[in-house]
């Protein structure tokens, strides 16, 4: 657990990282740098999208599996890595926005 | 159209690019390096996922918008760039 905490802190130390969320399979955040309601919202909506992405991948090739989903928007990137029954969510600003 | 074609060919020339698909708003491929049925399958499935991703982004922030969706799998990456009237899909192997 300490190792996980260290890794997350190393990621969060990066200037352009807005926040991280670790959520369980039900979309409940168990650790987050966002406030509770925001983390809960992200975790819930992204859980459904990730499940759909995973079944799309399996639909195309049943031997394959989703490793990471990256959603790039106008000002940030949201990365979701599902693992067993957890989701790791990372939100990163694009650099030119990070400097302003 | 030539500029689009040139750009797509430049992308396809990359050794790790498996295929490209350009689909219209209905998810019908209009140009693809895959054969028709495979392109149609990808385009159809990814169109639904992209629509869901777009509405997820707007759900989180109504001022924001999806620019690229990237699906990383065990052996490849699928990149989808939605435009108002089309979908550009690129499949790339993860080398090494």
Mind explaining what this structure looks like?
The complex is a heterodimer of chains A (100) and B (96). Chain A has helices at residues 2-12, 36-60, 95-98, and strands at residues 17-24, 29-32, 66-73, 76-83, 86-93. The longest helix of chain A has 25 residues, at 36-60. Chain A has a five-stranded antiparallel β-sheet with strand order 2-1-5-4-3, with helices on both faces. Chain A is α+β, with helices and mostly antiparallel strands. Chain A starts with a helix and ends with a helix. Chain B has 96 residues and is α+β, with helices and mostly antiparallel strands. Chain B has a five-stranded antiparallel β-sheet, sandwiched between helices. Chain B starts with a helix and ends with a strand. The interface between A and B is medium-sized, with 25 and 26 residues. Strand 3 (66-73) of chain A pairs antiparallel with strand 3 of chain B.
Q: Which sequence of SSEs, written as H and E, runs from N to C of chain B?
A: HEEHEEE
What order do the SSEs of chain A take from the amino end to the carboxyl end, as H and E? Answer: HEEHEEEH
Mean pLDDT across all amino acids of chain B:
93
Low-pLDDT regions of chain B: none
Secondary structure class of chain A reads: alpha+beta
Instruction: Tell me the overall shape of chain B.
Output: globular
Q: What proportion strand of chain B? A: 35-45%
Major β-sheet annotation of chain B: 5 strands, antiparallel
Most extensive chain interface and residues per partner: A-B, 25 and 26 residues
Q: In oligomeric terms, what are we looking at?
A: heterodimer
Amount of beta strand of chain A? 35-45%
Q: Helices and strands of chain B: which structural class?
A: alpha+beta
Please give the order of strands in the largest beta sheet of chain A: 2-1-5-4-3
Question: How are the SSEs placed, and which strands pair?
Answer:
The complex is a heterodimer of chains A (100) and B (96).
Chain A lengths: L1 H11 L4 E8 L4 E4 L3 H25 L5 E8 L2 E8 L2 E8 L1 H4 L2
Antiparallel strand pairs in A: 1-2, 1-5, 3-4, 4-5
Chain B lengths: L1 H11 L4 E8 L4 E4 L3 H25 L5 E8 L2 E7 L3 E8 L3
Antiparallel strand pairs in B: 1-2, 1-5, 3-4, 4-5
């Amino acid at each position: 657990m300490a190792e996980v905490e260290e890794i997350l802190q190393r990621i969060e130390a990066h200037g352009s990282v807005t926040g991280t969320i670790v959520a369980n399979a039900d979309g409940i955040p168990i650790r987050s740098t966002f406030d509770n309601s925001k983390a809960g919202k992200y975790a819930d909506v992204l859980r459904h999208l990730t499940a759909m992405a995973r079944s799309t991948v399996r639909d195309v090739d049943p031997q394959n599996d989703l490793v990471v989903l990256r959603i790039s928007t106008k000002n940030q990137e949201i990365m979701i890595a599902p693992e067993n029954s957890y989701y790791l969510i990372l939100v990163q600003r694009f650099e030119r926005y990070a400097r302003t | 159209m030539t500029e689009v074609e040139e750009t797509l060919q430049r992308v396809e020339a990359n050794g790790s690019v498996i295929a490209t698909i350009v689909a219209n708003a209905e998810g019908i491929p209009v140009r693809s390096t895959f054969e028709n049925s495979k392109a149609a399958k990808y385009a159809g499935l990814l169109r639904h996922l992209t629509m869901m991703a777009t509405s997820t982004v707007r759900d989180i922030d109504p001022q924001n918008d999806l620019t690229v969706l990237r699906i990383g799998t065990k052996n490849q990456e699928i990149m989808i760039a939605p435009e108002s009237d089309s979908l550009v899909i690129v499949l790339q192997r993860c080398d090494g």
